Structure prediction request, 240 residues.
Amino acid sequence: MATALLAVGAPGTAAASGAADSAAADFSAASDVTRGPCAYTATPDDPAARPVKLPPDPRRTPSHGTASVVLATSQGPIGLTLTRAAAPCTVQSFLHLVRNKFYDDTTCHRLTAYPTLKVLQCGDPSGTGERGPGYKYKDELPTNLQPAPGDPTGQRRIYPRGTLAMANAGPNTNGSQFFLVTSDSVLRPNYTVFGRIDEAGLATLDRIAAKGIAPTPDNPAPVDGRPAEPVDISRAKRTC
Prediction:
């Protein structure tokens, strides 16, 4: 079974545009690794939740400018601005998945409400939090996040409200799952930041967070679990 792609566990623990986008993935059939700088790597032991090829991996991966994507959800639109300079391989992969409708008709499976961690996690078509696109790729970790005040380790950073980042299952295991930061959250800087959420999207996230997390028989007031009201992505669409 695939490893669950969690943004974190409990607080304080690890948990291209134009021709480039349309270019065929250049990879070795023997190794299932693309030959460009992103080295997208097939994961046959962790097959794709929905059929999709490896992303394009041009030798000059676009690393300037932005791209815009809107997630049409059952709770309202969430607009995203992807920043190529921050994470070119991540943006390349995310746009590839959007173009191939990987995120369409999926559900966001996780909402957290810890005092220092408030995120919505999406991107697994199986809805379990354990699946991905059948490939992985390297981290592109942030270096400009502010230190968390009062952190005795000096290692934790603030992922600000409105941050768009990749979930993972350890170093260099990025796939399709991502998380949306609803309030300033404290994490080790182990999660690739690749964009921002627009104001309309933040309003949508505030409504989702206000409705809370679905209770379970064992936990009537959870701080981590499925959203109380489903957050279903009907379509992810690139807008520019």
About this structure: Residues 199-211 form the longest helix (13 residues).
